[in-house]
Amino acid sequence: METFLKNTVPVMEFKPFRETIYEYLRQQILSGNLRAGILFSDGEIAELFKTSRTPVREAVQKLEAEGLVERLPMKGNIVKGLSPVEIAHIYSIRKALESLAIRYATLRITPEELDTMKAILDGVDTLLALEDTDNLAEKLLQPAGEFNNVLFNACRVPKLIQMVWQHRELLDRYRTMRIVISKQLGERFVTRRRVYRAFLEKDMEKAVAAWEEHLETSFRIWLESSGLDAEKARGEYL
């Protein structure tokens, strides 16, 4: 276990140990602090949290179900990487989940949320009009995230929102958002504006079609940038 983990154990809250340990390990994995291939034991984590191994095992089981770790008999737990096929599957799951969220959002988005979306998009237009393009991709990450927050929260289905962000976090571990934005910069907001206009018109099918096109373009850009087995991955994407 790398020593930096000893200084990052969170303050314990009034929640089950297994949940605190699960959230901590998941954040460490998704942030890249626990990289693919790193081994850790239940005992090491139990010692960090000054608890028994039972809640650690329960937390690791949840991580294993998400495909983030794998138990190795007699060795411990290993942080897993994602294969091209697994990333393709995650994109397909994202497409299904996010399309459903947009269907709900079309019906439930408020005028205030629409105003927020417009302000974000107008701010991006102002940013893109500037001649200074230094670090533009990084500057666009924040408004992209803010728009997506409004978009998904507008569906008003907490469990669905949670699942959407879980799958987005899995891909962000591989910096796919930065790869995609750096390739097309402001063009990635064209489909967002189309979604916004579809929301104004209460046109559910138009909103879903725009967002699915957005995701399909993101997947294509990732394939072109990954250097991995693109053909195999493409065959697994729906």
Describe, in plain words, how this protein is organized in 3D:
The structure is a single chain. The protein has helices spanning 17-30, 42-49, 53-65, 84-108, 111-129, 136-153, 158-172, 176-184, 188-201, 204-226, 230-236; strands spanning 39-40, 69-72, 76-79. It has two domains: 3-79, Winged helix-like DNA-binding domain superfamily/Winged helix DNA-binding domain (Arc Repressor Mutant, subunit A, Orthogonal Bundle); 84-236, Four Helix Bundle (Hemerythrin (Met), subunit A) (Up-down Bundle). It contains eleven helices and three strands, in the order H-E-H-H-E-E-H-H-H-H-H-H-H-H. It has 238 residues and is mainly alpha-helical. The relative contact order is 0.12.
Short description:
The chain is 69% helix and 4% strand. It is mostly helical and 238 residues long.
How are the SSEs placed, and which strands pair?
Blueprint (H helix, E strand, L loop, with lengths): L16 H14 L8 E2 L1 H8 L3 H13 L3 E4 L3 E4 L4 H25 L2 H19 L6 H18 L4 H15 L3 H9 L3 H14 L2 H23 L3 H7 L2
Helix pairs in contact: 1-3, 2-3, 4-7, 4-10, 4-11, 5-6, 5-9, 6-8, 8-10, 9-10
List keywords for this structure.
single chain; 238 residues; Arc Repressor Mutant, subunit A; three-stranded antiparallel β-sheet; 2 domains; mainly alpha; 3 strands; Four Helix Bundle (Hemerythrin (Met), subunit A)
Number of DSSP strands?
Answer: 3
Shape, per Cα inertia axes: globular
Q: Label the structural class.
A: mainly alpha
Radius of gyration, whole Å: 20 Å
Q: Based on the structure given, which CATH architecture of the largest domain is correct?
A: Up-down Bundle
Contiguous helical run count: 11
CATH class category name of the largest domain: Mainly Alpha
The CATH superfamily name of the largest domain is: GntR ligand-binding domain-like
Read across the widest sheet, the strand sequence of neighbours is 1-3-2
Helix content: 55-70%
